[in-house]
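Long-time lurker. I teach an intro course on protein structure, and each term I like to show students one example going from raw sequence to a predicted 3D structure in token notation. This year I'd like something fresh instead of my usual example. Would anyone be willing to generate the tokens for the chain below so I can use it in lecture? Attribution to the forum is fine with me.
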Amino acid sequence: SHSQINHYAFNINNIKSKTLYPYKLYSPDAEDSRGNIWVHDYNHFSCLNISTHSFENYNRPYPSLADKSDQFIGLVVDRKDHVWLCDRNHGILEFDPLTKKHVLYGLKEGLPHLTMYQMAFDSTRQVIWIYSFLGISSFSTESHQFETYGITEGLYSDDGISSISFSGEKLFVGFWDGHISYTSMNQLSANHKIPAIVFTSLVINGEAW
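-- Reply from a regular --
Happy to contribute to a lecture. Here you go:
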């Protein structure tokens, strides 16, 4: 026998966007406990209700930047069915579909840089991973705490990162120059004891400051 396959058209009438990425449907991290599937484009996100076969659409719940440099670059659903989006140049957005309330986590909460490039999700630990100009950062969807890892934690470089991904218990970090770093998740820890640097003298263009 053949399996039944349901098809859903991603078009302007359904989700008010011409730039949604259908491949996001293949991520189990974007499915809630009721089987509904969440997708996004640069400025909107939508829920495909499997029971009613209809879309519920949402806009960014705060003003977009004037230069349009902000973009949703990733979406996951946690075990509480809260939706999390990585919003470049804004922060990490938490959205509760039941109350329609949202919280934005950014620099004040410890995000090292607002320019983020990729989002990965550790569903076992309920941790979101992103990378920016300042290394890789983890964000716990339960404690709402950021931790950032870079050269001081053994990363090959803080900059030039091209991708992050998981395979089993290992976190892989790729770099544009071809290098790959990886570590076991249970061995990864932030270095909070970075030695202090004290300037005893400073000379610029032959002049002491």
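Some talking points for your students: Helices lie at 12-15. The longest strand covers residues 71-77.
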